[in-house]
Write a structure and sequence with these properties.
With 432 residues, the chain is an alpha/beta fold. 53% of the residues lie in helices and 7% in strands. It has 16 helices and 7 strands.
């Protein structure tokens, strides 16, 4: 593709900026495609006279908190440069680094609620950690915007599936309706670019925010476990098939990007890849870390047992010390403790504190007198009502969990499942 095509795309974006009053959203993942789109957007706005730069634009990036560290470092630096450049040049472009709320983090769902590590059938992580934070932000803004245009770096050349999906969606003036956000229109400015053309642009054109893309290029080269050749014809292999995701991802068979970064000298990845193997072991029911009943009481591989969750937390804290990375926050630890109190074979309210204190040698606050008095009260109520004390504690903890997150949807079903557990235990005891 001739270099004039890049100019044509920038000019079309500039014209869309001037002709269409709707605010813009720009999806940014830190990868090559989204970097190119962000660069084109910045250049288009710069081409607009300063007095006409009134459109609201938000660059949206999600941080699941379990992203590959090398990617996180590049993203944080890039977003900081974007924000400063926009402020210094009056572009009216804001940067939003979106994260899932603590109660929906990877570790709270897995170690707290006991969700097994994701697989292709039960891929619970993407919706909670990537899609929901963006949807929440967009819906909040759409409330007073009315509609918005979302610029994405999707390309047909990425895969045949992507090409079919993009070809199958009706366009209106080059815009497609977002499949899940009806008041959002999607524009794919580099839809027909090849991987070679993307890299040609990124390596020839410094970003407006003041950095070239050589660090990104090197990251792709390392993740591909080899050099990314400068493209001069289609006979040379491309540097574009790396997929940067969460280092905890157990959906793919092999995390080739992490393996490539390790081979290139990022020693942190050795520890992270080792922990990923641990997650795969805990997911396999044959290894004894899964309950034999599902959350709804039916037979079959269920959540991680409380013993499994305790062991995972111990290993995660050890990993945190080995790598020097912040992998789990105090707020997440408190949420995990709350959820353990509502688990099958419930925790006594001090399990997380004991593990943290032993692992770190730091005292995690817990008022033992208050906890003991609370247990005594719970046992008194349980005796009066002829209820199993552990079942009562689980139900109280579950109510408190929902109260802390200011939601009620799903609580009746969760309480019913706890009662089903009690009934199943009583039936098993009678048979015994």
């Amino acid at each position: 593709m001739a270099s004039t095509s890049y100019q044509e795309i920038r000019d079309s974006l500039r014209q869309l900026y001037l002709d269409d009053p709707r605010p813009w959203l720009v999806g940014f993942s830190g990868g090559k495609d989204s970097t190119m789109v962000a660069s084109l957007v910045f250049d288009a706005v710069l081409a607009v006279p300063p007095e006409q730069r009134k459109k609201e634009i938000a660059v949206l990036c999600t941080d699941t908190r379990v992203e590959i560290p090398a990617i996180v470092e590049i993203i944080e630096e890039t977003l900081g440069r974007m924000q400063k450049f926009s402020r210094d040049n009056g572009l009216n472009i804001e940067v939003q680094l979106l994260r899932p709320p603590p109660e929906q983090s990877f570790w709270v769902n897995m170690i707290g609620r006991g969700y097994p590590p994701p697989n292709r059938v039960f891929r619970w992580c993407t919706q909670r950690m990537k899609i929901d934070p963006v949807s929440t932000f967009v819906n909040q803004r759409i409330g007073h915007w009315g509609e918005a245009i979302l610029h994405l770096g999707a390309r047909r050349a990425e895969s045949s599936t992507r090409a079919q999906a993009m070809a199958g969606r009706e366009t209106r003036n080059g815009l497609r309706r977002h499949p899940d956000l009806p008041r959002v229109w999607v524009f794919n400015p580099i839809e027909f670019f090849s991987t070679e053309e993307v890299w040609a642009y990124l390596l020839q054109k410094p970003n407006a925010w003041g950095a070239d893309n050589r660090a990104l290029y090197k990251l792709y080269a390392n993740a591909s476990n080899g050099e990314c050749p400068i493209q001069i014809d289609t006979s040379t292999p491309s540097c574009g098939n790396s997929r940067f995701g969460c280092w905890t991802c157990t959906v793919v068979e092999r995390d080739k990007a992490s393996e490539g970064l390790l081979a290139a000298g990022d020693e942190r990845m050795e520890h992270l890849l080792g922990f990923r193997e641990t997650l795969l072991q805990f997911r396999d029911p044959a290894n004894g870390w899964r309950d034999s009943r599902r959350m709804n009481g039916n037979d079959g591989p269920g959540p991680l047992t409380i013993e499994g969750r305790r062991e995972l937390l111990k290993r995660l804290l050890r990993l945190q010390e080995e790598t020097g990375l912040t992998l789990i926050t105090p707020e997440e630890l408190l949420l995990i403790q709350q959820m353990w109190k509502a688990a099958r074979d419930p925790d006594d309210g001090r399990g997380v504190a004991r593990i943290v204190n032993k692992q770190r040698g730091v005292i995690m606050s817990a008022d033992l007198k208050e906890l003991n008095r609370l247990r005594e009260l719970e046992e008194e109520v349980a005796r009066e009502k002829s209820i199993n004390p552990d079942i009562l504690r689980r139900m109280l903890a579950k109510v408190e969990e929902y109260s802390d997150s200011n939601r009620a949807h799903g609580l009746p079903d969760d309480l019913l499942n706890i009662l089903k557990d009690d009934l199943a235990e009583q039936t098993a005891g009678e048979k015994g």
